What we know:
- The chain is mainly beta.
- The protein has one helix at residues 16-19, and strands at 31-36, 39-44, 47-55, 61-65, 75-78.
- Strand 3 and strand 4 form a beta hairpin.
Amino acid sequence: MEEMGEKLCENCGESLREEYAWIDTTIDTFKYKVVSGNKMKVLSNGKWKTITVEFNEDRIKMKITPALTSMEESESWISF
């Protein structure tokens, strides 16, 4: 089986790694400290950042403000 990054793109002849180089594939883990019932301090890019966590009624969806993994104001994580 070929490595995904080495497989050639059928249309352009470039490797998939080159074709999709613009995608940020960074994966990170965060250190955190619980501050209160719905607030945490998260170590992100060398700085401690306070975030607010809100769950929906059945606790399937978690909203984090400000977002940790995007430039958006907030983000939602869903448990399956």
